[in-house]
Amino acid sequence: MVPDSVYGAVLLSIIDFFLSIVMITGIGFVLTLFPLLNRLGTLDEEKIRKGGH
To answer: What are the backbone dihedrals phi and psi of residue 11, each rounded to the nearest 5 degrees, phi first?
Structure first.
């Protein structure tokens, strides 16, 4: 357990800081994947208009 003192508060703040960096990096990584997914899932509009699959 983390002690209930100034040392414990500083320790939790440092842990929280690093975990927030990890979360923000993870969100950024997911957001960079969206253009790749968009390129993989492109639809041919002519096929759709003609009714082809």
So the answer is: -60, -45
pTM for the full model? Answer: 0.61
Tokens of 36: 């790749």
Helix (H, G, I), strand (E, B) or coil at 35: helix
Which one has a higher pLDDT value, 10 or 35? 10
In angstroms, the CA 53 to CA 48 distance is: 7
Up-side HSE of residue 5: CA atoms within 13 Å toward CB?
Answer: 4
**CA 42, CA 39: separation in Å to the nearest integer?**
5
Q: What angle do CA 39, 43, 49 make, to 5 degrees?
A: 165
In the numeric block, which tokens belong to residue 45?
């509009």
Residue of 53 and 17 predicted with greater confidence: 17
